[in-house]
Amino acid sequence: MSDVGKPEIRFAHVADAPVIARIHMASRAATMPYLPRQKRSHDQVARWAEDVLLKSCRTWVVVRDGEILGYAAVEGDMLEHLYLRPDVRRQGIGTLLLDEVKRNSPDGVSLHVFQQNTDARAFYELHGFTVLDTSDGHRNMENLPDMTLRWTPDAAR
């Protein structure tokens, strides 16, 4: 049996920035319609991915048949981003990325999620994350109510 079609995870490269930007923008538009319309162009988001994201975060991409399907970025013990191409959701791709994040976070990992993002909340809760706190939105640039979730290896056992 060949590995064609089998997703693999690797560290993101600078050359991946334009694709990461495309996934970031498409995923936010498809899964969070309550967010304000994106004001930044693809080139601006790609520059952010290259100059900020890839320099400050450990970033992994999941690749199948040479195509990047999604990415996850961790800064310290905070999962800052986990986004998938909208057309590959609910195929286990997000779980693969999250499992990689967990493997590389021996002391656990936290994240912020919008309270309105019920799909993401259900996904993280399914994977052992628990709510640490909630906020009225003062700590994010969208000013939307959010919550902090945390996964710790001990809690998963």
TrEMBL record:
Reported EC number(s) for this entry are 2.3.1.-
Q: Which PROSITE patterns match?
A: GNAT (PS51186)
> Which InterPro entries does the record cross-reference, listed alphabetically?
Acyl_CoA_acyltransferase, GNAT_dom
Q: Give an example GO molecular function.
A: acyltransferase activity
List residues of the N-acetyltransferase domain: 7-150
Query: Which enzyme class?
Result: transferase
Question: Is this entry keyworded Transferase?
Answer: yes
Any one Pfam family match given in the protein's UniProt record, by short name? Acetyltransf_1
* Keywords for the protein's UniProt record, in alphabetical order: Acyltransferase, Transferase
Q: Could you tell me what this protein is called?
A: GNAT family N-acetyltransferase
* Organism listed in the record: Streptomyces ortus
